[in-house]
Amino acid sequence: VVLFFASSIVTMAVPPSSTNVDQIVKDIFSKEFKTSGSMNMDTNRVTGTQENQYKWPQHGLTFTEKWTTENTVGAGVCVEDKITKGLKLSFDTMFSPNTGKKRNILKTAYEREYLNAGLDVDLDFAGPTLHGAAVDGYICWLGGCQMTYDSAKSKMTQGNISLGYKTENTQIHTNIEDGKGFFGSIYQKVNDKLETAMNMAWRHDSDTTSFGIAAKYQLYSSASISAKVNNSSLLGLGYTQSLRPGIKLTLSALLDGKNINAGGHKLGLGLEMET
């Protein structure tokens, strides 16, 4: 893993992780359309997940349990800021009784003023797979890399390089993935009510290009609407309403503009509860 270090005059707070560098753009495109359950109208198949967390703050411990309608169960434990400040260690396990398939992941993350680095180990019986990443911040600039090494195949299977620029109201992010594709995104907070975003991608191995635009508008303190459209004529619409503290309702739709009169459109209903 290549780590990008800056000098001691860095003023940026802890940078985001490599998977969250453009998270605010992902939220505008995706978060308003995400639910914890779904139903396929063509097959009448319903899927969903249930996750619970139990925290023991005086010891820095968090226990997690997860269940899905695909009959997959999972559990995890996380300890934070106990060995040293900024270090987070966690272990997650997933098990499917139907197939007997198991997955165990050991995760480490380290955060400090100008560095956010992590190393995850997927404990596969054929040989562990290592996922490493690091993001460094200097003033308003972000630079980082991400890699995956498959010990069973004795080769690197993924290598990404990212560069970003972040201010209070603007974010720009670019990423080169495995030397085969270029990805970029722009976020702009126009005012206290309106946020906009754009993303684009080009892959030279398949010579394909894609792009999309999205916006989120805060109607009032407890409700917002959002919309997105891409070059494949997919139109997404969403409405989010906070019913009361800790309870949020989301309605969403994804329409295929090329086949308005045909099937394939998606509707979503999400209810998010926090206690």
Automatic annotation (TrEMBL):
Catalytic activity: K(+)(in) = K(+)(out); a 1,2-diacyl-sn-glycero-3-phospho-(1D-myo-inositol)(in) = a 1,2-diacyl-sn-glycero-3-phospho-(1D-myo-inositol)(out); a 1,2-diacyl-sn-glycero-3-phospho-L-serine(in) = a 1,2-diacyl-sn-glycero-3-phospho-L-serine(out); chloride(in) = chloride(out)
Highest taxon listed in the record's lineage: Eukaryota
GO molecular function: nucleotide binding; porin activity; voltage-gated monoatomic anion channel activity
A Pfam family the protein falls into: Porin_3
This protein's UniProt keywords: Acetylation, Ion transport, Membrane, Mitochondrion, Mitochondrion outer membrane, NAD, Nucleotide-binding, Porin, Signal, Transmembrane, Transmembrane beta strand, Transport
Subcellular location: Mitochondrion outer membrane
Signal peptide positions (record): 1-19
Record-stated family: Belongs to the eukaryotic mitochondrial porin family.
Name of the protein: Non-selective voltage-gated ion channel VDAC2
Lineage: Eukaryota, Metazoa, Chordata, Craniata, Vertebrata
Gene: LOC114459620
